[in-house]
Design a protein that fits this description.
Strand 2 and strand 3 form a beta hairpin. The chain is built from nine helices and ten strands. The chain has two domains: 142 residues, ATPase, nucleotide binding domain (Nucleotidyltransferase, domain 5, 2-Layer Sandwich), CATH 3.30.420; 167 residues, Nucleotidyltransferase, domain 5, CATH 3.30.420. The strands form two sheets. The protein has a five-stranded mixed beta sheet, with helices on both faces. A five-stranded mixed beta sheet has the order 8-7-6-9-10, sandwiched between helices. The longest helix is centred in the last third of the chain and has 32 residues. It is of the alpha/beta class. Bound molecules: 5'-O-[(R)-(carboxyoxy)(hydroxy)phosphoryl]adenosine. 5'-O-[(R)-(carboxyoxy)(hydroxy)phosphoryl]adenosine (KG4) binds next to helix 4 and helix 5.
């Protein structure tokens, strides 16, 4: 049988990425990250779309070359339709449309959030990979989202809990900024927390119903604590940076895990995965290991290369949709708002 090759394009935020899969096996995954935003302490949408325009041709070209295939062999083109930054999505989707039309191959639209979750199904040659079994729960935590998703099948996913204000990654990034750390601050907090005492400072956890999250209160109490302490001692942040990072990280992780545990009990599901940028966090990963031992969870932690935005995860969604012949019309317009 002829192999199925899926070329995928991801451009929802500030990473331009292209990947090629052969069936559910990864052949290439090229990511061009945009450093320009570091200067501004956050992603600047207009600069992101310009950088995507600059990067997209070389990134796609390299992904096809690294896969060792000819573009005429590509079976279908999958692309991120949303959610994301509209200008960024427009660059990827417009390129995808032109490329698919030129090769006369079908297009497959992919939801960015579903892609993060289905990254757990990507296989790599020579690797013993264990994909999650349906149904499973997935904690989806990134700069823009914090959700608990009940994953019933490749296509059927239900958000059973989500943040009512800020995302976990946003809380990390904003608190990191208060500490004078560069953007994105999450990885810096993770690094400094390793040297700190997670019990040094206490921050209140929000009381939110059901399986929903809230991180804006934590952000505010972190800010007020810094303000009050700096008023007494101007060197407070420098003297306590590692303890502040460790305590903040401990609070974010326990907020995330408390609700996930509640959902696991309510749904009677012990197959639990984590996805999104914050899934790179070492304390969150350690908490998953701990819950696995304590409560018999079968856990799925993504490879670090799949925690950030990447096209491999778009390609695996594309592959499953290809098997269902679930193609989209060329007129499909990108969408920016959150949906799954
Ligand atoms: O999924 P992602 O790459 O994209 C967006 O949502 O834009 O997630 C990025 C987020 C940022 O908030 C970043 O600070 C956070 O993931 N992040 C981390 C770590 N690595 C990335 N947060 C905590 N610890 C980390 N090691």
């Amino acid at each position: 049988m002829k192999p199925v090759y899926i070329l995928a394009i991801e451009s929802s935020c500030d990473d331009t990425s292209a990947a090629v899969l052969e069936g559910d096996y990864l052949l290439s995954n090229v990511i061009a990250s945009q450093k320009v935003h570091e200067l501004y302490g956050g992603v600047v949408p207009e600069l992101a779309s310009r950088a995507h325009q600059h990067n997209i041709v070389p990134v796609v070209d390299l992904a096809i070359k690294q896969a060792g295939i000819k573009k005429e062999e590509i079976s279908a083109l999958a692309y991120t339709r949303g959610p994301g930054l509209m200008g960024s999505l427009l660059v990827g989707s417009s390129f995808a449309k032109g490329f698919a039309r030129a090769l006369d191959i079908p297009m497959i639209e992919v939801n960015h959030l579903q892609a993060h979750i289905l990254a757990h199904f990507i296989k790599e040659k020579g690797e013993d990979h264990q994909s999650p079994q349906f149904p499973f729960l997935c904690l989806l935590v990134s700069g823009g989202n914090s959700q608990i998703v009940l994953v019933k099948s490749y296509k059927d996913m239900e958000i059973i809990g989500q943040t009512i204000d800020d995302a976990a990654g946003e809380a990390f990034d904003k608190c990191a900024k208060m500490l004078g750390l560069p953007y994105p601050g999450g990885p810096h907090i993770d690094r400094l927390a390793k040297e700190g005492n997670s019990q040094a400072f206490r921050f209140n956890k929000p009381q939110i119903p059901e399986f929903n999250y809230s991180f804006s209160g934590l952000k505010t109490s972190f800010l007020y604590r810094l303000r009050d302490e700096v008023a007494k001692n101007p060197d407070f942040i420098e003297e306590n940076k590692c303890d502040l990072c460790a305590s903040l990280q401990h609070t974010v992780v326990s907020i995330l895990m408390d609700k996930l545990y509640k959902a696991s009990k309510a749904y009677g599901i012990k197959e639990v995965a984590v996805a999104g940028g914050v899934s790179a966090n070492s304390a969150l990963r350690a908490a998953f290991q701990d819950y696995s031992k304590r409560y018999g969870w079968k856990i799925h932690l993504p490879k670090f290369s799949y925690t950030t935005d990447n096209a491999a995860m778009v390609a695996i969604c594309g592959y499953f949709k290809y098997l269902d012949k679930d193609f989209c019309p060329i007129e499909a317009a990108p969408f920016s708002s959150v949906a799954i």
